[in-house]
Amino acid sequence: MATMTGQRGIARRALDGALDLLIPPLCLACDTVVSETGALCPRCWAKVAFLSPPTCDGCGLPFPFDVGEGALCAGCQRRPHPFARARSAIAYGDGSRSLILGLKHGDRTDAVATFARWMAQAGTPLLAAADLLAPVPLHWTRLFLRRYNQASLLALAIGRISGKPVVADLLRRHRRTRKLGHLGPAERRRTVAKAFAVAPRHAGRIVGRRILLIDDVLTTGATLDGCAQVLLAAGAAAVDVLTLARTVRPAPM
Ligand SMILES: [Zn+2]
Ligand SMILES: [Zn+2]
């Protein structure tokens, strides 16, 4: 059995090698040829802003200087998120927009393994504490248009790296979220929370567990707030959040 897998592994690597010769791997963000699949060219690499401590202990917003363990940003002090901690691998901005759009709308699913590694690194303590991982779901109409949920792909890849169980359909999105820009924060939160539900067959897996939600981008956190609220109402002990990218300006309150 082990030999079979080994042989298959060798065949797979040979096939990957042959494909690399036919279609040389391209930078995840531009069309420059790079040495291996899932890499960035030096120019694009230099433009990606990786996030590291010190950050807000709640939402993960980077701080310009260390203000001590457990410090919260002004936004989290005023209105704590229902999730306990959020961490993100990179800043959402000019250097990362094409990476994220490529994952969302293009066919750059070859980026998933790389992004998952970055996220596992940024979320090491969150992963260590997590009982299970769950992606933020897409509404089926969007799933149909995009063919895949990028958050699910990331969650499955992070599950493989960390060895933590992933429940890809833990949450359901049963209505499309309308544009929320015109709503106040409280109303926005209520609207978003109503859009999500726990899949009944997984209800038993939530009670007393610490759940790590996975998504591609954190902006205002409204979607993640909605998911966290639903999970806490279903009995989760706590909810943390790990995203590939986040906006680095404080969200308007
Ligand atoms: Zn590039
Ligand atoms: Zn914060």
Please describe the topology of this protein:
Elements: H1 2-22, H2 42-47, H3 74-78, E1 86-91, H4 97-104, H5 112-122, H6 124-129, E2 132-135, H7 140-146, H8 150-162, E3 171-173, H9 185-194, E4 196-198, E5 210-218, H10 222-233, E6 238-246
Parallel strand pairs: 1-6, 2-5, 5-6
Antiparallel strand pairs: 3-4
Helix pairs in contact: 5-8, 9-10
Task: Note the main attributes of this structure.
Rossmann fold, alpha/beta, 39% helix, binds zinc ion, 253 residues, two-stranded antiparallel sheet
What's this, in brief?
The chain has 10 helices and 6 strands. It has 253 residues and is α/β, with parallel strands linked by helices.
Give a description of the structure:
This protein is an alpha/beta fold. It folds into two domains: 1-40, no CATH class; 48-246, Rossmann fold. The chain is built from ten helices and six strands, in the order H-H-H-E-H-H-H-E-H-H-E-H-E-E-H-E. It has helices spanning 2-22, 42-47, 74-78, 97-104, 112-122, 124-129, 140-146, 150-162, 185-194, 222-233; strands at 86-91, 132-135, 171-173, 196-198, 210-218, 238-246. Strands 1-6-5-2 form a four-stranded parallel beta sheet. Helix 10 (222-233) links the parallel strand 5 and strand 6. Helix 5 (112-122) packs across helix 8 (150-162) and helix 9 (185-194) crosses helix 10. The radius of gyration is 19 Å and the shape is globular. The chain starts with a helix and ends in a 7-residue tail after the last strand. Bound molecules: zinc ion (2 copies). One zinc ion (ZN) is lined by residues 27, 29-30, 32, 40-41, 43-44.
